[in-house]
Amino acid sequence: MKLFYLDRSQRTLTVIATGFLLALSSCRESSVTKGRSTPRPTSHEPVAPEHVPLPQLCTEMDCQSSISFNLPESLIQLPNLGIRIHSQGQTGEKNCSFSISSGTKVSSVSDCPQILLKTLGGELAGFELVRFEPSSMVLEVLRGTAVVHRQEVKPSYVVYRPNGDDCPPECNQATVVVGSDN
């Protein structure tokens, strides 16, 4: 037995050809069924073939749950920016802290997930914590040891499915605008 695999365009062509053949077969002059004659259909519209569902096709793009933090200009200008986060989530409490110096270097990382710095025009615009999705948190921005901004946050997550609605994986993503009420 020889198997043939059809790509999407070949399947589409097969469905169109099947519909055309069905339309032609319904347009015969007449057919005899148990001694009765059935007249030819008066409509010249093609008869649609039965719907044959195509198999679900999914790509294999990956994604990670994360929270993105957008920093206001007033905090970005601090020479050595300290970030401290106390979070609550499914895995319990977590305390994460790190420093950003010169707007491009992360240092003094303590108990944090992967940290990505966000830039705009070469300047620091914020940061993102990857594989991090707490239900609530307290964010503190420090200059040295002094807290210059404190914000309680309950992130609103958006479900992201990079491969389509019915395909894995599923990731939760949120954005926090530091200095706003979110």
The gist of it:
By secondary structure, the protein is mainly beta. Helices cover 13% and strands 44% of the residues. It folds into two domains: 1-55, no CATH class; 66-177, Immunoglobulin-like (Sandwich), CATH 2.60.40.
Characterize the structure shown.
The chain is elongated and about 80 Å long. It folds into 2 domains: 1-55, no CATH class; 66-177, Immunoglobulin-like, CATH 2.60.40. A hairpin with a 2-residue loop joins strand 1 and strand 2 (36-39). Helices cover 13% and strands 44% of the residues. The strands form 3 sheets. The protein has a 5-stranded mixed beta sheet with strand order 7-8-3-12-11, with no helix packed on it. Strands 6-5-4-9-10 form a 5-stranded antiparallel beta sheet, with no helix packed on it. By secondary structure, it is mainly beta.
